[in-house]
Amino acid sequence: YQRGWTPPNTEQAVVAGGQPDYKECYFAAPMPLDPLCRRWFPEVYIGNVWPNDAEAFQSGLMGIGRQLHLLGLALLRAAERALDVPAGSITGKAEGGAHVSRILKYLPLDQPAIDKGNFQVGGRCSVLWGEEHTDFNVLTLLPGGAFYRDGKGGERPDDAGGLYLRTHATAEHPNGQLLRGTPPKGCVVAQVGQQLEVLSGGRFLATPHVITAPTEPGWTRTSLAHFVHLNGRERVEPLPEYRAQAGDAYAPPVLAGNYAMKTLVDIGLAPPETLGRLGYRHYDRLARMRGEQV
Questions:
Q1: Cβ contact 206:197 at 8 Å
Q2: Distance CA 106, CA 183 (A)
């Protein structure tokens, strides 16, 4: 899962009520994979898949992914300092993780589809290209997106289209505010993932975000994202310095590899039978013994 091309109408957010996102994407792992995790979690730790005669595409995606990963590690080191925990408390747990980069293309919509939009953003009602959600990894790096129509790039057609991030709740805005997620030139957007929220005992909160379509038909949007993950053998639980503060809010702990497999089932990127690998798988032995006894 999360390798090669994912066709449209596949991925869906947990809160989407069964509505797939209007997008297609291509996944690749730019960093070396933990050999033991490749045995334990083969669905998550798998080799890359590439089209034929696509050397430039492969080298470009892998190179960008590696550079974004280095930036992500630098930000996690800053998070360690902000949390006042020993160096390596987070970055060490991410070593050998199932880090993945993906290119996304959000699909053009016709006017009847746009007319069904009911998500209020930018002073307009918009269709959701990608349902609002939080990422299940540690940290997500987003260098920005671009809009196209009829094969030509252009400025964002209106304030309804693009990436929006939801801020923390405040007394004045108990549901947070939606802010445009367009980074300044030469910068990236960094989003906190669920795993970093858990590690920090809620000191950092996972960033809700949504991708909305313009209100003009025919536009597409392309973007790239890199996802930093915990190593599959690490436990997703608050760091020792934050366990008392967190209480049972993030209990019980779970292996990051199992966490990933469960989430991929939830969002439609893995089949439900994947969950059968998360528990005991040898009940057939007793069944066979009882059958032979009869």
A1: yes
A2: 19
Residue partners of 237: CB distance under 8 A and separation at least 6: 198, 199, 243, 250, 251, 253, 254
Please write the tens of the pLDDT for every residue from 36-46: 999 999 888 99
What Å distances lie between residue 270 and 6, 43, 216, 267, 276, CA to CA?
11, 8, 33, 8, 12
Strands, E, within 110-252: which ranges?
119-121, 124-126, 128-133, 139-142, 145-149, 152-154, 162-166, 178-180, 189-192, 209-212, 220-228, 235-236
pTM score > 0.85 for this model? yes
Q: Report which DSSP code applies to 90.
A: T
- End-to-end, the C-alpha distance of the chain in Å comes to 42
> One-letter amino acid identity for 188?
V
